[in-house]
Amino acid sequence: MGWLLVFLATTSEMVGVYGLNIYNRKRNLLTWFVYYGGLAASFSFLYFSFYYLPVSIAYAVFIGFGTAGAVLMNMIFFDESKNIFRILSLIAIIIGVTGLKAIS
Length: 104
Description:
The chain is mostly helical. It has 4 helices and no strands. The chain has one domain (2-103). Helix 1 runs antiparallel to helix 2 and helix 3 runs antiparallel to helix 4 (84-103).
């Protein structure tokens, strides 16, 4: 159950990041709700995941995969740079988060 909540938190964070991008381009009530709703849901799911998982592990996985997901989403949907150093950095983030989980 805890990992499901972390997954939902990460997914909600990406919705919030997407909302931030569209809110930055077109400010209206709908984009505001996507932005703040995604982030509010994200932190709510993360909070409840702490009942099932150690905070240090749940938070590290949330931040790592949320960051990697947000960067990938911006590369795909918003034409951010796709240079090799960014991709290698994303791989390093994913390896680091996976390593934290594996040794805990």
